[in-house]
Amino acid sequence: MAETALLEIRDLHAWYGASHVLHGISLHVQPGEVVALVGRNGAGKTTTLRSMMGLMPKATGRVRFAGRELLQLRAHQRFHLGLAYVPEERRIVPGLSVRENLRLGLVAAGSDIDERVAIDEIAETFPRLKERLDQEGVTLSGGEQQMLAIARALIAKPKMLLLDEPSEGIMPVLVEEMGVLFRRLRDEGKTLLLVEQNVEWALRLADRAVIIDQGEVVHQSSAAALLADKDIQERYCAV
Amino acid sequence: MDLSLIIMQLLSGIALGAVLVITALGLTIVFGMLGVVNFAHGALFMIGAYAGLYLASLTGSFWWGLLLAPILIGGFGMLIEFVLIRRLYGRSIDDPLLLTFGLSYILVEGVRIVFGSDGIPFPTPPQLIGVLDLGIGFFPRYRLFVIALVAVVLLVLWLTLEKTRIGLIVRAGARDPTIMQVLGVDIGRVWVAIFGLGVGLAALGGVLAGPMRSVNPEMGSLVLAEAFVVTVIGGLGSIVGAVVAGLMVGISISLVALFAPEMATIVMFALMAVVLLIRPQGLFGVRGRTA
Amino acid sequence: MSGELLRAEGIGKHFGGFVALEGITVSFAAGQLTSIIGPNGAGKSTFFNILSGALTPTSGKLHFRGRELNGLPQHRFVHQGISRSYQITNIFPDLSVHENVRVAAQALTVSYDIWRNRARLTELNARADVALDAVGLLGRRAELAKFLSHGQQRALEIAIALVSEPELLLLDEPTAGMGPEETKDMVALLERLAEKRTVLLVEHKMKMVLGLSKRVVVLHHGRLLADGAPDEIRSNPEVRRVYLGQSEGYG
Amino acid sequence: MPKFGPTSKISRRTALAGLSASAALLAMPRLGRAADETIRIGFPTPLTGPFAAEARDQVKCAELAVKLANDKGGIGGRKVELLVRDDKLNAGEAATRTLELIEKDKVHAVVGALSSAVQLAVNEVTRARGVIYVSISQSDTINEAKDFSKFTFHEALNPHMTTAAVARQTLKKGMKVAHLVADYAYGHEMLRGFKRAQAAIGADNVGEILHPFGAADYSTFMPRLMSMRPDVLCISNFGRDQANAIKQAVDFGVKQQMKIVVPVILHNQRLAVGPDVFEGVVGGANYYWGLETQSKSAAAFNSAFKAANGGAIPTDYGAYGYSGVGSLLQAMQTAGGTDTDKVIDALEKLQYDLTKGPQHYRKCDHQSVQPVLVLESKKKSAMANDNDLFAILANDTGSDDMLRSCSELGHAT
Amino acid sequence: MTSPSGGEAVAKSTSSGLGRLLDQRVLLSIAVLAVLPWLLPSQALAVNVLIYGVVVMGYNLLFGYTGLLSFGQAAFFGAGAYFTGIAIGRYGVPWFAAVPIAVLLSTGLAAAIGIVSTRTRGIYFSMVTLALAQLVYYVALQASSFTGGENGLRGFTVDRVSLFGLSVNFLDPVNKYYVLMAFAALAMWFQSRILNSPFGAVIEAIRENEQRARACGYDVERSKLIVFMLSGAISSLGGCMLALHLSIVPLDILHYQTSGMIVMMVLLGGARSFFGPFVGAAAFLILEDVISVWTPHWQLFVGAIFVLFVLFLPKGIWGTLLDTLGVGKARP
Known about the structure:
The complex is a heteropentamer. By secondary structure, chain A is α/β, with parallel strands linked by helices. Chain A has 10 helices and 10 strands. Chain A has helices spanning 45-53, 75-79, 98-104, 115-125, 127-130, 142-154, 172-187, 199-205, 223-228, 230-237; strands spanning 7-16, 19-29, 34-38, 58-65, 68-69, 83-86, 160-164, 191-196, 208-213, 216-222. In chain A, helix 3 (98-104) packs parallel to helix 6 (142-154). The longest helix of chain A is centred in the C-terminal third of the chain and has 16 residues, at 172-187. Chain A is globular, with a radius of gyration of 17 Å. Chain D has helices at 4-31, 52-71, 91-103, 116-128, 159-170, 185-201, 222-227, 239-251, 254-257, 267-273, 275-278, 296-308, 316-335, 340-349; strands at residues 39-45, 80-86, 109-112, 132-135, 152-154, 176-182, 204-211, 232-236, 259-264, 282-285, 351-352, 359-361, 368-369, 372-377, 390-396. Chain D starts with a helix and ends in a 17-residue tail after the last strand. In chain D, helix 2 packs parallel to helix 13 (316-335), helix 3 runs parallel beside helix 4 and helix 8 (239-251) packs across helix 10. By secondary structure, chain D is α/β, with parallel strands linked by helices. Chains in contact: A-B, A-C, B-D, B-E, C-E, D-E. The B-E interface holds B 31, 35, 37, 84, 87-88, 91, 93-95, 97-99, 101-110, 112-113, 221, 225, 228-229, 231-232, 236, 262-263, 265-266, 269-270, 272-273, 276-277, 280-281, 289-291 and E 69, 116, 119-124, 126-128, 130-132, 134-135, 138-139, 142, 256-257, 260, 263-264, 267, 297, 299-300, 302-307, 309-311, 314.
């Protein structure tokens, strides 16, 4: 099974300075799969994503993505393998319009892409952004900013999308909307790794679930099974 | 004191400001993007003048010198970033400043060794020798050319920043280098390029100043202090600020020269003190980052 | 011990066009442990920063012991009797553990004294040691703060806030990033603290909050959603929907 | 790796030896001098900085003077040694170096300095310690009673002498004269000289602009200078300031309207800025190698210098180094040694002709009375070779009339 | 090498013994300075080490202990020298009164510059202090009737110092050294008291974590202003010493290159250590002395050495030595 995985992580360790935060994470994601990565605050979910993107000062182990070893690559090179990341803080760049923020998703993707076409396309998928293309990105509401961050990550058509708590601090209506979007992405064959605190919502979206606690994987199962197993949820995800 | 004299005075202030703008611009762009205050900026300005002179004598034309010196010295700047400054990212914000301070000693002394400590004549290009009759007075052609060239450089720079992909990367990279990495941009290469651009602008300022001033190893030290004042007034990292403050300083020096000439140097420092008392972050600076 | 200590009246905070807080009116009685909860982005940290003086509200007023706090610079808040800890560990890494606390202790008395030898200010040193003892760090007083473990640094953080003997102690997620053992120790510490002084706590960990607090205030989208005893909050349908409901069965 | 015990002993012994060796090295200058008879002359000069070329010329010429004396068997049989120190064109540095020369090297006299500030600093140190100092800087603040002492001699020209000579050559009754002046003591000295000469001739003053010392840009003064419509523009500044000011005046077309004159025209600045900018500029000088056609001593000095320096020609500032050290050595010869009072006495009585004609030190302020040259910068096409920079307009024989009077300088007469 | 553990034990015992010894940092520093003239090639150089050591020590309070990189310390060094010279030469004030007057006036100047500059942070602070110090330079240049302008201040030679009936020939280099060393000792004692005081803890807290210091109840801006003035006061004492030593005040003392030299010295010696400034001053001055005898291009080497220190030895000579010896917190 692991040979066909799009992403395979083995024994991943990571450190912030002297503080050892990941203690050997191993997990894998198949192509076209939606995997929810859940666990308490501070369990190491975000750190796992950051290690994959090359944003940790020190990380060891093996992370294979699309047949390449990621940890030896520099951060920006990982993007070119088809890995897109939507950080928890969204990081909409201030001073730039929505359109320019979207263009940022394309600046490194290669000159053969027609920016206009790509932006038109993505604006169809995100009608809320379409009306606001020339507004400054940071003046959008929290949910709209999240949509923009996702659109920016999607615009270069990545193989896999890493999402860090997309529902955090967002109005329920928009969370619903986002759920619809993720289902559609799954139907289109996109691979998603979703870090969430909103466990139930995430589990309803996902095929499979991985629970992390104190920097280690403590449980893996199908999302449906975990959704049914309140005990395990209670033990590892209680906030 | 008649009006035409005041207009002539304004014009000479603008010409003076134009050189200040181009020099301060390099300093401010590098700071805005990399968070590095380049203390060797004045020394690189001076080296730019020498390089322009050398290349002009090599090719027989001032214009080649004007074109090639900023490129060559800009490339040298990229080398400096790559070999020295890069090691200091992540350390105290003071360290690049201190390093480039030491570097300026090396550069100035290096020029003394190669070209001697005397000045070298830098002739005005033959096409621009002499004065133009503006009706109200005569003004050197070369200084008019400097004003025009700086305007063109500013326009090109503005268009590049606002309208091109590279400009977008630069603007976004200054605000959030991490997200640019996530979006596949090799931010290290952008930093090298920006440092090169900043140094190239210093060199351009040097070549432009060459035919107006005497070219000597110490010509950069005064320029450095002036460029600091301009960037502080304009707001560190602000391009618009550098332009406005550069012209403001040039014109105030010029007008003070009319009424109290011996105060002409002091006026810019006084202007800076006043601006800082009112707006500690400078006219166009963003509060929080530095002030 | 009872009576109103701190009152916020119509507090609002805008960042440019973004509304972080709107019309928060709430009052805190002396001698209670109150928790402020809410999903991420609800405005808890902004509210906290306003209460501790780090941010100035765009609208509204703060009263502390009947005195209006608006317009006071942040450093004066400590002198009024309000002290805080930070969500992200915020200590003096290159000073010793004892020095971390001692420097906080002297703020109210001898801050600009350039002449006396601080090693001989025995009362201050003793007070610092008492605060360190309270958080269980007395044994490590001579070490540099940066060499403490994460949990110990969090405890040091609280000792720093505690040593000024504040009437109101503001604690911002004191258990952030802690494992279960460390969390347990911290909860015990919080319980001890709450016996003697007024504590305002921002927390994520619901069980802990509901167990510790006398009262819970819920923020959501920058507004006050609910305010009441833990049991009321637990059963409040609005709260369940936006917050607890996220993972059913934790009510 | 050798064994622990013995190594440590050896290494300690080696270390001690090394330590004492280095201590000896450091202490050597002090110990090595006890009983030698050498005459030591300190020579602070700005080997680094913008006047390094002038300084190097000064050193070469001073060394030449020493060498010639030693070749003749020294002074009263004693060899002469020149101790050159870099003053970095910094008065503080110069004072420190001079203190070292006096306290550590025990020099018998000091000659040197280029800038006004440095000469005054050196003078302050030497006069407090009773050491003879022959200054070769052109400012005349040092001649005034406040800074003067019996140990102080001024070999260089002063602004009063050069401006008077230049004015005589360029100004006529009724001419309109404007001034661009560096706003510091030396600039003011030059302005004072020009204005006095101009008043004597009967030329009219149409305006004075003071510019900040060390400014790089003079363009802002040009519109106003042009609007004064003078016949002659006197630029009273020095070195780089002068080069920049003339260059920018030329850019503004000033030369089409008026003649530019300067108190001192410098060989090396003319080289640094080029013939086109300087074309037609008139200024004073203490020396120009082309004087050899008019003066035997100039010819002799030139050939001695050329012989010692591979055919190079001496410059204006170089000549100061030669005459400064040369006159001192002659006085020591007369005094029969280094006794300070005797040497002062000999210097006061000395008549010497080393580079350009007869010179002597005036009694009241120890200013060297000497010939003054007025030079005009040649146009490029008129230059016979690279060294052919100036035409000599005048060579005024030295006389007391050229100087400010002793009472004016505050000396008891 | 027989037993590495044995070696370590030895090292440890020496370091703790050393630690106790180094606690007496003022006395120890004075002891070292007392023999300095006999170690250096000239007394003039030794006096300069004293003077610059005091100036840099004052600067270290600002840069090393508070973390504020000023590029304008020359203003206070110069002010101390000018005020001393003017008081003695122009107003006939005796030297022992001129020095405290000069320090007081310089502290006032530091207050004026500090009010503007401590409102700014980070790199801005460096540039603003540089520019304001240049302003002082130009003012001194223009006010030539007071300062002597470009020619420098002269006419206040102190040839004898007499106090309490004792009179010594101040022109004698050895006498001069020990009189000035008394000043340096005074400065060291003062600085040591500041560092040991509650306020000494405040400035370290501000360096470590400005935000937290504010939250602890400190008026950070006011504390920075106070330390700026204290630092200016100590550095100005170095200026007073220079004026007495050289009997001139060169205008260059106010130039930003002097400030740059002070920064170089503190980095060479080691910021945040008590004796580091003296080590740095000595290292810089000896280096300059040695290399400038050897080549006129000494600045090339000075610049290169400085760059290497920034890259590889950011704690400076003394700081690195202390770290190697394992001497802890007191950092003599």
